């Protein structure tokens, strides 16, 4: 398949506007499935097979004791090979400063969930961007209208964070009885079944030389640009799992709770709807639209994209939980989310391991995506904008 950018001549004249603004046609081909030339601002090529990779570090431990952490977002070729370090002129060495200025909420999340085991997060982020991010064709500066230096790096980190938030590996494994333990071991088939039942496709499961579970690779093809396209789960390509079939250790992170179970556990497939997870403690409610984190819920229960995220307190209530902000209890009233001192009875929500749910559905809505100082009401009834809400524990 010999693809090339079509930002040339007469063909470009009719195609450039959409490509340059990274607004791609709804009929854009799915990466790794196209057989004709197409604008590489709307079709990632040659790295059309995207991997969201996660770490489980225990020695030394990184990140929360009840969460995996981000390794990176990698654009592999469709056969498992890959390019690396594709543009040294954009191998930025000030990722923290870039994100502080353009995406502070993304940076805040990364400081908890995208950690370097040596303690040098900045160097780790620079490495992931320089080695992998610069090889994503849709992130090239030429794909932007009125391009501002480094904005493609902001898109890379924001997309990686948003994708990671849809893949709660710890919760998915825990729901299947696979929990960190200093004594238990697990089978590869049990781990694979627990993840596949939620993700929909096989996941690459990796272990170190001591049979310790330490990395997961989730595979995607993308329709449209990596920035705003539709990520579709895909079968793995390239190297397979490095774990043995049995005797896999899933060690607890030092300082976290250790759960001791039987020596070897198996699992059965369980639907997400049947394994709701009551939330508790403090956290943020991040909004996801089109697979990308787009602002968060603030204290009144409205959606905001340019302010500071509010801290919510989740309190277990039966099989679900209630939410409270600094404004008061949160409830669904007249099909709208509101948090206020006037709310006398808090609504009981659920969590499916990935998204907040109400009435058995994870779908929420708004009349428009807010911008600037505008806030949007979040509805449970259908509106023009569809969104989902994730929980980020503090």
UniProtKB/TrEMBL annotation:
InterPro entries listed in its UniProt record: Ribonuclease_T2_eukaryotic, RNase_T2-like, RNase_T2-like_sf, RNase_T2_His_AS_1, RNase_T2_His_AS_2, RNaseT2L_C
Record-linked SUPFAM superfamilies: Ribonuclease Rh-like
Domain RNase T2-like C-terminal residue range list: 278-392
Keywords: Cytoplasm, Disulfide bond, Endonuclease, Glycoprotein, Hydrolase, Lyase, Nuclease, Signal, Vacuole
Domain of life: Eukaryota
A Pfam family reported for this protein in Swiss-Prot or TrEMBL: Ribonuclease_T2
UniProt keyword Nuclease present: yes
GO molecular function: hydrolase activity; ribonuclease T2 activity; RNA binding
GO CC field: extracellular region; vacuolar lumen
Signal sequence coordinates: 1-19
PROSITE patterns, per database record: RNASE_T2_1, RNASE_T2_2
Compartments, as annotated in UniProt: Cytoplasm; Vacuole lumen
GO BP terms, alphabetized: RNA catabolic process
Keyword Disulfide bond listed: yes
Active site, UniProt feature: 71, 128, 132
EC number: 4.6.1.19
Function as written in the Swiss-Prot or TrEMBL entry: Rnase which modulates cell survival under stress conditions. Released from the vacuole to the cytoplasm during stress to promote tRNA and rRNA cleavage and to activate separately a downstream pathway that promotes cell death. Involved in cell size, vacuolar morphology and growth at high temperatures and high salt concentration.
Family: Belongs to the RNase T2 family.
Name recorded for this polypeptide: Ribonuclease T2-like
Source organism (scientific name): Staphylotrichum tortipilum
């Amino acid at each position: 398949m010999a693809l090339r950018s079509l930002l040339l001549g007469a063909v470009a004249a009719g195609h450039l506007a959409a490509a340059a603004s990274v607004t791609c046609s709804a009929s854009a081909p799915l990466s790794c499935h196209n057989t004709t030339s197409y604008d590489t601002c709307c079709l990632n090529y040659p790295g059309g097979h995207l991997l969201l990779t996660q770490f489980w570090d225990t020695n030394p431990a990184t990140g929360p004791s009840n969460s995996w952490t981000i390794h990176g977002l990698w654009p592999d070729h469709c056969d498992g090979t890959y390019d690396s370090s594709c543009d040294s002129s954009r191998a930025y060495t000030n990722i923290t400063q870039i994100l502080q200025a353009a995406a502070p909420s993304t940076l805040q999340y990364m400081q908890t969930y995208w950690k370097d085991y040596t303690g040098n997060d900045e160097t780790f982020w620079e490495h992931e961007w320089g080695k992998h991010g610069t090889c994503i064709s849709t992130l090239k500066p030429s794909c932007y209208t009125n391009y501002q230096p480094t904005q493609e790096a902001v898109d890379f980190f924001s997309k990686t964070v948003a994708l990671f938030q849809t893949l709660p590996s710890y919760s998915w494994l825990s729901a299947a009885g696979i929990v960190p333990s200093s004594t238990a071991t697990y089978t590869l088939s049990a781990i694979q079944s627990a993840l596949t039942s939620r993700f929909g496709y096989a996941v690459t499961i990796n272990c170190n030389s001591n049979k310790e579970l330490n990395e997961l690779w989730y595979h995607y093809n993308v329709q449209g640009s990596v920035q705003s396209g539709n990520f579709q789960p895909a079968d793995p390509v390239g190297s397979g799992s490095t774990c043995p079939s049995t005797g896999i250790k899933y060690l607890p992170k030092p300082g976290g709770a250790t759960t001791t179970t039987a020596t070897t556990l198996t699992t059965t497939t369980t639907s997400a709807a049947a394994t709701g997870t009551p939330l508790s403690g403090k956290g943020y409610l991040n909004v996801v639209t089109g697979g990308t984190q787009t602002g968060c819920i603030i204290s009144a229960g409205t959606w905001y994209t340019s302010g500071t995220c509010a801290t919510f307190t989740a309190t277990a209530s039966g099989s679900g939980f209630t939410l409270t902000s600094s404004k008061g209890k949160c409830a669904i009233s007249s099909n709208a989310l509101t948090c206020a001192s006037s709310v006398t009875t808090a609504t009981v929500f659920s969590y499916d391991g990935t998204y907040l749910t109400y009435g058995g559905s994870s779908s929420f809505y708004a009349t428009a995506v807010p911008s600037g100082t505008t806030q949007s009401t979040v509805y449970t009834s259908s509106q023009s904008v569809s969104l989902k809400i994730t929980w980020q524990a503090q």
